[in-house]
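Task: sequence design from structure.
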């Protein structure tokens, strides 16, 4: 596919027809509260839908209750093994690269600031982490798995934000396009896939070409289930690079909301890390992964760790070499990575299951001023724009 300014502009005016119609009907009939209450009991795929669920919601859940028919399950299994092999690194990339990248797009930062949930950044990060962990479970798409209901709820969450902003005239559609439009959803898909792979490469993580492609493929499946038009989504990593380069050139920049959300993120992870000595590592890692220009836009502070954190790829390179050469070492590091991810997620969730609900209103202060073999090592596609 070829990404152009014209094609990207067209994507700015497209939303998610099915989810948007469902949410509009729920609000029109006053059924949002009842829907949210009943949906707390829908957490696993294949479970009977609760009685009393509004008909429009039942129709939506039945229509979206299965993965796309085109899914290649062998690729999904490769992606799962890739996640097991790199779970702690992927969590690091999601937290310290993908999320700040969302914040460096001003209109996306405004959208994120619109929801009540962003008053509690741990909730947002816990939901993101839990969503990814659910995705990479062996039973993710089977009866009893938790991923499918989570994807269905997140899709409605996005539609509800579109509904509120348009209904309350709190979004300049002419200037900004549809809120959470197809271009932004595809951009988000790139942040959580290609940008994660870029970050792993920057950290010195050893990845095979096959593993990287499978991980990207898994997020194409996720995108489809979240209402992203896959006919407009890059199919290869090279095409993804072209899309992401153009998307960032079109939209990235500083904003008060982006800086505020980044400060919340830094504070959150400084609280998670025991003591205070290592607190500056959080800022240093964000700055290292997103680069100085974006970090400055987000008001990420310079710290004494800015230079030291550049040694992380060498340290990880040693550990990765041990993992490559020793089956026992690989097993031990995979277990350590799993435990680290579980500990991080449990710290954010505090042992709770995160529920994705349709918000009945937006924040009143919206709009603040201003394990495959790792041979044929993966190399990121080169930048396409000067």
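Answer:
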């Amino acid at each position: 596919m070829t990404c152009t300014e014209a094609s990207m502009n067209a994507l700015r005016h497209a939303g998610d027809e099915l989810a948007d119609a469902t949410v509009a009907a729920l609000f029109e009939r006053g059924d949002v509260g009842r829907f949210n209450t009943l949906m707390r009991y829908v957490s696993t795929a294949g479970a009977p839908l609760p009685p009393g669920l509004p008909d429009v919601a039942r129709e939506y859940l039945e229509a979206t209750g299965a993965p796309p028919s085109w899914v290649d399950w062998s690729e999904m299994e490769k992606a799962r093994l890739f996640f097991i092999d790199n779970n702690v690194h992927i969590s690091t990339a999601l937290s310290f690269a993908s999320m700040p990248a969302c914040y460096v797009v001003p209109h996306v930062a405004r959208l994120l600031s619109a929801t009540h949930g962003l008053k509690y950044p741990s909730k947002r990060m816990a939901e993101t982490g839990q969503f990814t962990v659910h995705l990479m479970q062996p039973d993710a798409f089977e009866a009893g798995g938790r991923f499918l209901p989570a994807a269905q709820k997140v899709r409605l969450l996005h539609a509800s934000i579109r509904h509120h902003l348009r209904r309350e005239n709190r979004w300049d559609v002419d200037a900004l396009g549809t809120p959470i439009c197809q271009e932004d959803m595809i951009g988000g898909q790139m942040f959580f896939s290609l940008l994660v792979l870029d970050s792993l490469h920057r950290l010195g993580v050893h990845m095979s070409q096959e593993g990287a492609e499978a991980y990207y493929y898994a997020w194409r499946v996720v995108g489809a289930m979240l209402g992203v038009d896959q006919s407009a989504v890059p199919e290869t990593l090279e095409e993804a690079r072209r899309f992401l380069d153009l998307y960032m050139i079109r939209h990235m920049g500083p904003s008060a909301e982006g800086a505020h959300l980044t400060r919340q993120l830094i504070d959150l992870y400084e609280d998670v890390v025991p003591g205070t000595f290592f607190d500056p590592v959080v800022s240093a890692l964000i700055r290292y992964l997103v680069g100085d220009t974006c970090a400055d836009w987000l008001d990420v502070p310079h710290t004494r760790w800015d230079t030291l954190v550049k040694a992380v790829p060498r340290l990880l390179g040693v550990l990765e070499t041990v993992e490559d050469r020793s089956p026992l070492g690989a097993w031990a590091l995979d277990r350590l990575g799993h435990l680290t991810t579980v500990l991080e997620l449990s710290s954010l969730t505090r042992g709770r299951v995160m529920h994705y609900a349709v918000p009945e209103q937006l924040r009143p202060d919206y709009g603040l001023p201003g394990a495959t073999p790792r041979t044929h090592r993966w190399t990121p596609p080169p930048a396409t724009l000067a």
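The chain has one domain: 5-61+73-349.
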